[in-house]
Write a structure and sequence with these properties.
mainly alpha; 18 helices
Length: 454
């Protein structure tokens, strides 16, 4: 790889705030298009079919994240490993980690397809999905998971590019994919009237396009992280590192998704209007998560590269800057969603009861986005430092055990949907407190050095 390409992608050199913002901004735009991508199905289905179809699409979100979240966590672990070796300029290990990550992605995508298609009906029934919504939910869900291989590989490919400091090309590919998804949604649903299943088909076609574009880039770039098809295989040492860094995040994602399924089950008890309204809010909420996810991802890569290069002071300064930017931006977006939530919810479905449920949830949680942002940024920092078990444990306790316990007990005595919504800001606050204590009391900055000694 040329020195010019290296200087463009390395986050261990140059002005800290410029490097972080230059890396995070394409991530931010990419997340905008990802959210449009995710929102297109609900928006178009809700307007061109009916509220039952919208509820079917909305009810599948937690289940989808349950299965794909685990493998997404593994891709995060792969990114941490690749970023560390890339920052340390260890070319051979970058190559081994990249090809092992791709091999793992192929195997995971195949497994996820089989598991997702087979378990769809059982999981949706266990969630208490309303009977009139269930057939469309099963159809949407099964078609969606037929594209699992593309989804997993896309995340692996993007993880490789972002780990090496390239957030611009994933943005370009995501824009193409998002536009394709929206056009196909309109064609299949609004013009050809093919129903809910066609919305899922549009999504997986778009996902295959984005994965193919990433793959083409990685197989043709003149860089140390170039993919060579014949070299795709498992390296046991690298696989262990990827799993060690990725499994905690994968478990965290899946268990949080299980907790969210419990939450969704309680929402389902309030009827299909509540499902549609809260599902509509969840799509809007994704925009509130934009600065949260982009800065969390940026911090993971920044911390991993700089600790790999032993730039400890630079890692600390970057962590502080990233947290501040993310928290401020997330809170501003939360305030805007709070104010305009009636208009935003009605864009999905204008039925008064649907809008009312969505607005109640927005008015309960949006002003606390700062806490969610803070927790995610610290979690991203710990993952970049090789301490992925820390956010796993904290989030499992706060966002799963405590959240589910709270809802299970309180809803029984106060059967009001607001009680469910308050579970989010309360558990965000608890995780923020615990993360803060660990950030200042532990020596996370020298994790990699300690592992080498051990």
């Amino acid at each position: 790889m040329s020195d010019t390409n290296t200087s463009k992608t390395l986050l261990t050199e140059g002005t800290i705030w410029k490097k972080i913002l230059a890396f995070a901004f394409p991530l931010f735009l990419g997340n905008v298009f990802q959210q449009l991508y995710n929102m297109a199905d609900s928006l178009i289905v809700g307007n061109f079919i009916n509220s039952d179809a919208l509820a079917a699409v909305s009810s599948s979100g937690s289940v989808i994240f349950l299965l794909v979240g685990f493998f997404g966590g593994i891709s995060v672990g792969a990114g941490v490993v690749i970023a560390r070796y890339f920052g340390a300029r260890e070319t051979d290990k970058v190559q081994l980690s990249v090809h092992t990550a791709v091999a793992f992605g192929i195997a995971s995508g195949i497994i996820l397809t089989v598991v997702g298609v087979l378990l769809t009906p059982k999981i949706l029934i266990l969630m208490g999905t309303p009977a009139d919504v269930l057939p469309n939910s099963i159809l949407y869900f099964r078609i969606y998971f037929c594209g699992s291989l593309a989804f997993v590989l896309y995340n692996i490919f993007v993880g490789i590019l972002q780990a090496t400091g390239d957030s611009r090309h994933p943005l370009m590919y995501l824009i193409i994919s998002s536009v394709t998804n929206i056009v196909l949604d309109l064609l299949f649903v609004a013009v050809l009237h093919l129903g809910v299943g066609s919305a899922a088909a549009a999504t997986i076609i778009s996902q295959f396009i984005s994965a193919a574009l990433c793959f083409y880039r990685l197989t043709h770039i003149d860089a140390e992280y170039r993919i060579r098809v014949r070299s795709i295989r498992f390296d046991i040492y690298m696989l262990k590192q990827i799993i060690r860094n990725g499994i905690p995040t994968g478990i965290q994602n899946s268990v949080i998704a299980l907790a969210n399924i419990v939450v969704q089950s309680n929402i389902n008890a309030f009827g299909k209007m509540a499902v549609a309204g809260c599902g509509s809010y969840s799509k809007i909420e994704g925009f509130g998560f934009l600065p949260i996810t982009c800065f969390s991802m940026a911090l993971t890569t920044f911390i991993s590269q700089n600790l790999g290069a032993r730039q400890y002071d630079r890692a600390k300064k970057g962590a502080r800057f990233g947290i501040l930017c993310s928290v401020i931006t997330a809170e501003i977006i939360g305030i805007l969603i709070y104010i305009f939530s009636p208009v935003l919810i009605s864009a999905f479905n204008s039925e008064p009861e649907v809008v009312a449920f969505g607005v109640i949830q927005a008015h309960t949680v949006t002003l606390f986005y700062c806490l969610l942002s803070y927790s995610h940024c610290l979690a991203g920092i710990f993952r970049g430092a090789g301490r992925s078990t820390v956010p796993m444990i904290v989030m499992l306790i706060c966002w799963c055990v405590i959240r589910v316990t709270y809802i299970t007990i309180i809803v029984r005595y106060i059967p009001v949907i607001n009680v469910i919504f308050w579970a989010y800001p309360l558990t965000w606050f608890l995780s923020s407190v615990i993360f803060t204590i660990f950030y200042f009391k532990s020596d996370w900055i020298h994790t990699y050095e300690k592992k080498k000694i051990a």
